[in-house]
Amino acid sequence: MRKGRDLEILVKNIESIISKDDVAVKSPDYIYGVVSKRNREVDVSLRSKIGSVEILVIIECRKRGRIQDLTWIEQLDNKRKDVLASKAIAVSSKGFSSGAITVAKNLGIGLRESLNLTGKDIENWFKPTHLKLFHLHGDLIEAIIFLDDELAFEKPIIDELNVQIRKRPNEIFFIKLKDKKRVSILDIWKMVLNQIQIQEREKFGLEKIIKTISVNFTNPGDHLQIEIQKEFIEIKRIDFTGILHIQTRDIPISNIQSYTENGDREIAQTIQFNFKEGEFNTELSIHKLLEQDQITISIQKYSDDLE
């Protein structure tokens, strides 16, 4: 994730929660400039309609090591005029200089600050120091495949195929018909665990158990093929046997922030937990909307190379 993107996501999430259903919140957004004659990137945009009038609000965020001066405010006002926005808001992680505050007031630019808080600042509504995650873990013991047309091949051929899959579970053996993606038996096993996690996780505990799970590939979107003797044959079923149990992790608080207007009106407080989940980084945020006295949760997943 590029530097400063986390602040943009925080602002987008809070504005989405506060906004009504008829407000479209997007981050980032690309809006055509009538003066520059090119698309201008905007950190966060809010679009709505009052009667027959289209309303556009743009929000720019800066996570820098110093307070922001009037130069940025003037630049933001020029961008507002270029994209024909009704309102522009500047969000800084370090606040604004007195000159920036004066210029923003004269130009009608809204100011927001996102400042770090401590546990003492939120103890009146949030006391935990960790988030406990429960995750279904499974060690694959064996996988046996059943072909859609088993009579086309002799049993020793199918038996040898199952032996090879067991010996080399990371090898690429299968093709997903939906997108032609090649997957290994371990990839399919992970998909099965994710599905169990959604539907049946409460059936498992901390103690390890051995369980066999049969997966039928009847849904057209799930169809798999395997190449045998230069022929592609559809998979009818796979029987997975694995050791299953629930794993727990304690995730500490990563960050606590306030979202404030003009340095005095506190809009929201946010507690963030960051952790790795599979191939994705996950950010779970708990937002306290102070004026509404409302608590909401947002979850953001992103890969390591996300811009």
Topology:
Layout: H1 5-18, E1 24-26, E2 29-32, E3 39-42, E4 44-50, E5 53-62, H2 70-82, E6 87-92, H3 98-107, E7 110-116, H4 119-122, E8 130-147, H5 155-167, E9 174-176, E10 182-183, H6 185-199, E11 209-216, E12 224-228, E13 231-252, E14 255-261, E15 265-277, E16 280-289, E17 294-302
Parallel strand pairs: 5-6, 6-7
Antiparallel strand pairs: 1-4, 2-3, 4-5, 7-14, 8-13, 9-10, 9-12, 11-13, 12-13, 14-15, 15-16, 16-17
Quick structural gist:
The chain has 307 residues and is α+β, with helices and mostly antiparallel strands. The chain has helices at residues 5-18, 70-82, 98-107, 119-122, 155-167, 185-199, and strands spanning 24-26, 29-32, 39-42, 44-50, 53-62, 87-92, 110-116, 130-147, 174-176, 182-183, 209-216, 224-228, 231-252, 255-261, 265-277, 280-289, 294-302.
Protein described:
By secondary structure, the protein is an alpha+beta fold. The chain is elongated. Helices cover 22% and strands 45% of the residues. It has a nine-stranded mixed sheet, sandwiched between helices. Strands 8, 9, 10, 11, 12 and 13 form a six-stranded antiparallel sheet that branches. It folds into two domains: 5-118 and 253-302, Trna Endonuclease, Chain: A, domain 1; 132-249, no CATH class. The mean pLDDT is 88.
